[in-house]
UniProtKB/TrEMBL annotation:
Any Pfam family matching the protein: Peripla_BP_3
Residues annotated as domain HTH lacI-type: 6-60
Domain of life from the UniProt record: Bacteria
Entry protein name: Substrate-binding domain-containing protein
Coiled-coil residue spans: none
UniProt keyword terms in alphabetical order: DNA-binding, Transcription, Transcription regulation
A GO molecular-function annotation: DNA-binding transcription factor activity
Length: 341
């Protein structure tokens, strides 16, 4: 049979002290004698008493709790970002609760309702693919609950953001292919309703234009989720198209790995016949043969930065803090899928 939780009132009744005396003793208040403090703490330990942190936080109007909404926990990028968030939050005395939208707007809205009920101190969000506007986050702004968006953000919603320069990263990746001699470069693109994937496509096109190469729409394939299977289908279309690419820039590593495997199976050598660049630097990019050249999008640092920004806004809640956008620097990691012998 479950036993009821021991409260300060139970301790006060046992020791024939007032509740305030017990509370002061438990908190080592100087007005309570050392002997009484020792006795109160001894009994509290014997009976298994521990503070009701929820009630205490409500009295202080603070929960030291952060809600984090991510599209998919099983994607390495978000796992790393969560690790960065959790590391900073733990060191600052905050707990983190993770919610997964699975790229569903309906689930994302439902999660915001849960977070309103749970009275979190702040929220970190990466938007789902179905999210076209952020009106469901407006309530938090009205309640003065700080919000920080990372990676997938809304340009129309006023809040702090932590991002990378997707355009610049894609430009850098595509130019790398051009400088190694590729002239017919394909792109496997992400969902174009999301700004980050639009920017990656535009960066790819800008690099071609800068080097006087044609932007051939037949060499651009679109995906919904940038899954491995979608990558296979896109690579097969590029393989059977009228213009065979000699380079591919992919909007993530999964589709880049698909491309390597499809072209290798068809008898093409990577990188001699076709060079491939991915995006995100997933662990598998170091294992695939040949190893994958990719953009390291610094997901862990992005999570750390988002958490630091949010906690500063929570701690300085009495001050007016203007929303800010922090851009994390990316890195092109060159491996065997583009490396010349």
């Amino acid at each position: 049979m479950a036993t009821s939780r021991i409260t300060i009132k139970d301790l006060a009744k046992r020791m024939n002290f007032s509740v305030s005396t017990i509370s002061r003793a438990l908190h080592d208040h100087p007005s309570i004698g050392k002997k009484t403090t020792r006795e109160v703490k001894k009994l509290a330990k014997e009976l298994g008493y521990f503070p009701n942190s929820v009630a205490s936080n409500l009295r202080r109007n603070k929960t030291t709790s952060i809600g984090v909404i991510v599209p998919r926990i099983d994607i390495h990028f978000h796992s790393l970002a969560i690790s960065g968030i959790e590391e900073v939050a733990y060191k600052s005395g905050y707990t983190v609760t993770i919610y997964q939208s699975r790229d569903s707007l309906e689930r994302e809205v439902s999660i915001t309702n849960i977070l309103q009920t749970n009275m979190v101190d702040g929220i970190i969000i990466c938007l789902g693919l179905e999210t076209k506007d952020c009106k469901h986050f407006t309530r938090f702004r009205e309640l003065s609950v700080p919000l920080v968006f990372y990676d997938r953000v809304s340009d129309d919603f006023e809040a702090s953001k932590v991002i990378i320069d997707d355009f610049e990263a894609a430009f850098k990746a595509t130019e790398h292919l051009i400088l190694r001699g590729c002239t017919k470069i394909a792109h496997i693109a992400g969902c174009q309703s999301m700004n980050i994937f639009k920017a990656r496509k535009e960066g790819y096109k800008a690099a071609l234009t800068k080097h006087n190469l044609e932007v051939d729409d037949s060499l651009i394939e679109y995906t919904t989720e940038l899954s491995y299977d979608e990558g296979v289908e896109c690579a097969k279309k590029l393989l059977s198209g009228k213009v065979r690419p000699d380079g591919i820039f992919c909007a993530n590593d999964y589709t880049a790995i698909s491309s390597i495997q499809v072209f290798t199976k068809a008898g093409f050598h990577v990188p001699n016949d076709i060079a491939v660049v991915g995006f995100s630097n997933y662990p598998i990019s170091k294992i695939i043969e040949p190893t994958l050249t990719t953009i390291d999008d610094q997901a862990f640092e992005m999570g750390q930065t988002a958490a630091k920004l949010l906690i500063r806004q929570i701690e300085e809640k009495d001050h007016v803090i203007a929303s800010e956008t922090i851009v994390i620097k990316t890195e092109l990691v060159i491996r065997d899928s583009t490396r010349t012998s």
